[in-house]
Predict the structure.
Amino acid sequence: MCNDLAGFGQVVSVSGVRHSVGSIPSSFGGWVESGAAAEFEVFYRANVGVVSAFFARRCSEPQLVADLTSEVFLQALASLDSYDPDRGSARGWLFGIVRRVWAQHCERAARGREAITALAAHRLLGDDEIENVAARIDAQRAARELLAGWEGLSDLERAAVELVDLTGLEPREAASALGISAGALRVRLFRARKRLGKQRRTDEQL
Amino acid sequence: MSNFEDQLWSQLVRERGEQMRAAPRATAALASSVTATTPATRRGRRLRRPALLTGSALGIAGLASAGVLALTSASPAFAVTKNSDGTVDVTLSDLSDLPALNQQLAKDGIPVTAVPLSTSCSATAAINNPSGESSPSISASGQKATDVVRIDPSQIPSGEVGVLGASQTASGQIELMFGETTPPAPSCLNSAAFTG
């Protein structure tokens, strides 16, 4: 099973399926003359930390966390045309992709296939980067343990609480990522928090 | 230390720069619609001692001077404060607020543009003051939670504008670096210019 924490420690290794960074396209010429790259970088820098944290709560291998994080932004770039600011926030849109990438990974893992063989342009991390990502995984230790204690919640409730209370998304952004209405999200959030509060009080009495 | 975020960004620009350029409206919308909400995982930033750096020639020919600072999560996402002596204090704690910071600078009539600072930026705007000496238009002050980059707009040479490069370290700290250039301001600054 590969949903949320169930996948932690059971991730499929991607050893041997990594691709080296490709050459620079001749048409690119190493120069992005428009402001588009700078604008996307603002969006990237503002979100790459929470995206990698999402995967760091689920995976123990730095390379896999890095590959899944890369995949999110590759898919985001490939589907820029699908982003409509009138239909939701940028982070809601991005975390819809995050959840899709995780689901794709889990589907492959369930089939016994190498995790992300179909994904292009992933690269082997350098030692410094491994250390860097490993620190992110360590930093998510407490959140991982917290998530593990949420077994009484439905998948949607767990996702709602994680996106809002751990990731820091606004409820409307989380609703967009989960494909539900803001009202439905608030109901899930209310129920989940109430249940978790009750669970915590029970734990304290034991 | 090689940073995962920087390396991934470099890869994205190299391999998918065309996709970014092909969708300027989407990228503009993404940048401007990023909320000011600070993600939970980036809270609790630690203070770091500010320092002054001197630019060197590498694509950017000699940055005037730079203030490097870190801000606590208690600070606002950005702040532009006019002082009685005409100087302006600028703080930034979240890169997603660069567009909002620029709107505020423009609204206040301050000839400074804040842009992303990264290792992958290939914009070749020449930052003036090739001697690399500290410019009178910039100073870094304080070692407290209220650390700021102080800019004196009156000292920015006539016909030039200020460029404030902003980047975020792996630990979540914001670094600001300042230079002056002939307009228009570049869309980004290359941090390699500061390490040469």
Remarks:
- Residues 35-75, 129-147 of chain B have pLDDT under 50 and may be disordered.
- Chain B touches chain A through 53 residues (CB under 8 Å).
